[in-house]
Amino acid sequence: MPPYLQVALDNPDIEAIKRVVSQLPRSDRIILEAGTPLIKRYGLDAVRELRSMARDNFLIADLKTLDSGRIEVDEAMEAGADGVVVSGLAPRDVLEEFIYEAERIGVYPILDMTDIPDPVRLLSNLKVLPRVVIIHRGIDQEASTRIRWSLLGDLKARFSRILVAAAGGITPESIPAALSSGADILIVGRYITQARDPRRAALEFLRRIGLDMDQLRIHVE
User: Is the CB of residue 110 less than 8 Å from the CB of residue 132?
Assistant: First the structure.
């Protein structure tokens, strides 16, 4: 039932992350992401910690895998991840092995297109496709580049079964452009995780993507 809000938990401080997660509203439209900096500091124990306190949320491990695709998928699944991220910069053999293994064990394969000039071409050359593709503007790129909104529509038109996510400095003001371009998932980090009131910030996104607030109150209560 897209669109979804994916909260990117990138802060490499597990206690701070746990405080944020504890304040988020309960909703099946919220996806949690154990971000790359968090995993680099704590390993897949970060995923285990998040799974233990958020048993009902869809949980993604943002490994940005570049090699050993099968092994990293298996380890992420064992830690409690529902989805795992591979980098589009990985060799094609790694991408296909990653996707095959994720599908085999029931984990969502997610392909991050950071610094990929032609995502449509990359996907067209794969024998198997991921479940989700992320059009991602990295944190260090936000001052110098824009999100390529047109790519979202191109991907949706060519690969209708793939969910498309947008990431990189997403704010509530970005939502109309994201949704009109075909985004199924909005990936939001600092706007929520560094907010004084993470719950309120998340609710603002949920309201703007069209979630029924009356239904959400039932979950919160």
Answer: yes
